[in-house]
């Protein structure tokens, strides 16, 4: 983890911030408190930033590469909660948490660069421009509703249904190819979906044997999407 000595110019920082939906339409002057206090840093793959339980000084904007946020379960397994890419804010919700600590650990999934946004500066901009708070409330409400649906699905579905839903979710950005690369390891995936690693391996092996999927290293191609869609029908909601 390296703080770059040659600080980016204010214009560069403003250009980066302008790529974030939260700050859409705000002027250079409106974002000046953030611009003046932001710090730029570069991380190598595997570098940690913001360990769970550490005091929180602000959030991070991914400029290049990817970071992942995770926790360790009581059994020592890694549970991945999210992967963030360019111009996405990491730990923005933690800014408003009363304990003022990182709720998860942030780790560089690839070589990447981050812009560290000071908490007090961000809060000042939020106070001066209520549109930001409105956007945050919309975003937090959507995330809350998503998590309620996820918990409902997790507690009422089978392991096969959850795996089918996850695979299909990775296909959404593909154009009728139904092919993707697993973004996390199989052990992390098993933990994420609330199943044993052996169960995950058995399901993948069974789907391969039945030619429902084709697996090459971390790349997976869904050969029978209709089968997976049939498994996930109970998860579909009207709103």
> What is the name of the CATH architecture of the largest domain?
Sandwich
> How many strands, which pairing sense, and closed or not: the largest β-sheet?
5 strands, antiparallel
Per CATH, the superfamily of the largest domain is Jelly Rolls
Q: Provide the β-strand percentage band.
A: 15-25%
Task: Provide the number of structural domains.
Answer: 2
The number of distinct helices, counting runs of at least 4 residues, comes to 8
Q: Please give the order of strands in the largest beta sheet.
A: 1-2-9-4-7
Question: Helicity range of the residues?
Answer: 25-40%
Can you tell me the residue ranges where pLDDT is under 50 for at least 5 consecutive residues?
Answer: none
Mean pLDDT, to the nearest integer, reads 92
CATH fold-type name of the largest domain = Jelly Rolls
Just give the CATH class of the largest domain: Mainly Beta
Structural class: alpha+beta
The N- and C-terminal alpha carbons lie at a distance of 42 Å
Q: Give me the strand/helix succession.
A: EHHEEEEEEEEHHHEHHEEH
Secondary structure layout plus pairing:
Layout: E1 2-3, H1 10-18, H2 32-37, E2 39-43, E3 48-49, E4 58-64, E5 67-72, E6 78-84, E7 89-90, E8 105-108, E9 112-118, H3 119-128, H4 130-156, H5 159-169, E10 179-181, H6 186-192, H7 197-209, E11 213-216, E12 219-222, H8 225-231
Antiparallel strand pairs: 1-2, 2-9, 3-8, 4-7, 4-9, 5-6, 5-8, 10-12, 11-12
In short:
With 239 residues, the chain is of the alpha+beta class.
């Amino acid at each position: 983890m390296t703080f770059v000595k040659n600080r980016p110019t204010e214009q560069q920082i403003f250009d980066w911030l302008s790529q974030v939906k939260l700050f859409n339409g705000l002027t250079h002057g409106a974002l000046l408190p953030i611009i003046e206090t932001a710090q730029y840093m570069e991380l190598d793959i595997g570098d940690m930033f913001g360990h769970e339980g550490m005091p929180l000084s602000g959030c991070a904007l991914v400029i290049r590469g990817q970071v992942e946020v995770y926790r360790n379960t009581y059994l020592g397994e890694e549970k991945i909660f999210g992967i963030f890419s360019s111009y996405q804010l990491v730990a923005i919700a933690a800014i408003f948490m009363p304990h003022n600590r990182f709720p998860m650990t942030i780790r560089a999934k690839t070589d990447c660069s981050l812009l560290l946004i000071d908490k007090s500066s961000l809060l000042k901009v939020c106070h001066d421009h209520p549109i930001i708070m409105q956007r945050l409330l919309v975003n937090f409400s959507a995330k809350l509703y998503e998590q309620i649906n996820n918990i409902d699905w997790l507690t009422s579905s089978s392991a096969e249904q959850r795996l089918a839903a996850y695979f299909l979710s990775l296909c959404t950005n593909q154009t009728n190819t139904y092919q993707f690369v697993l973004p996390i390891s199989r052990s992390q995936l098993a933990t994420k979906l609330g199943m044993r690693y052996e169960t995950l391996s058995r399901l993948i092996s069974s789907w391969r044997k039945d030619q429902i999927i084709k697996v090459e290293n971390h790349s997976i191609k869904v050969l029978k999407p209709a089968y997976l869609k049939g498994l996930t029908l109970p998860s579909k909601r009207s709103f």
